[in-house]
Amino acid sequence: MTDASRVVLVDEVDRDGFTYRRLVARTPWIKPGDDLVPVIRESLGDELGSGGTVFVAEKVAIVSSDRLVPVSSVRVSRFAAFASRYVRPIGQDLAQSIPERMQFVIDRIGLPRVLLACAATAVTRPLKVKGAFYVIAGREARDLDGMHGEYADWLLPPLKPREGQELVDDLAGRLGVPVAIADVNDRGGHIRAVSPGGLSADHLLRALGDNPHGHKATSTPVGMVQLLR
Questions:
Q1: What pLDDT score was predicted for residue 1?
Q2: CB contact set of 127 (below 8 Å; sequence gap of 6+)
Q3: Potential cystine with 68: which of 78, 105, 154, 183 (Cβ 3.0-4.6 Å)?
Q4: What whole-number distance in Å separates Cα of residue 192 and Cα of residue 204?
Q5: What confidence tens digit (pLDDT) does each residue in 190-224 have?
């Protein structure tokens, strides 16, 4: 049993023939520029020496590394305003139905690719095929966050592979344990990066597939996974 006062979940789950031990810890509210190392140490305590892989929610990694983009810097084009009207929200996430978010995606991946994604949506929607826009537009559209709640004035673009790897390597080097960045929610998830020596992305997704660290209201964006057997 952990003596870390902020740990709110300790359990074991069996997935596909493997057993994982999971810890999820509460943290203070993370602000731009905050150093995650002392936050993780305080939250997980002595469990850091138990041989697991620390995981950090991608949103927290984006915020702490100060990669937020102010919405005020986005200039919405007529096309973005028009196209956003035809995008369906993903659950409670308004996604690219917000013109500024649509424009940000255009700026990141280019208008031709967004036009192709829109065309694919127009063709497949009458056939009741969902998600064509995000399949073609990719992670820049699918995983873009922001413009709601505490981040109403900010966009949170997903980490690029190189950015994610640099972050986990830095955290792992200073903590002395493997670190991963996870983007997991109730619709599934992705492992953005894992430092050397950590559990594989497949193992981490298997262990975290039910989103044990919940949503922002729980303030539990860090945790640890151990492969028991």
A1: 42
A2: none
A3: 154
A4: 11
A5: 899 999 999 999 999 999 988 887 665 558 899 99
Prediction pTM value: 0.86
97/24 same-domain check = no
Residues 6+ apart with CB under 8 A from 147: 71, 94, 98, 100, 101, 153, 154, 155
Q: Do 97 and 168 reside in the same domain of the chain?
A: no
| Same domain assignment for residues 43 and 102 | no
**Do 109 and 167 share a domain, yes or no?**
no
Domain limits for position 93: 69-156
Q: How many independent structural domains does the chain possess? A: 2
Cβ proximity of 25 and 203 under 8 Å:
no
Contact indicator for 59, 93 with CB cutoff of 8 Å? no
Query: What tens digit of pLDDT does each residue of 142-188 get?
Result: 889 988 888 889 999 999 999 999 999 999 999 999 999 999 876 66
The answer as to whether 1 is a domain residue is no
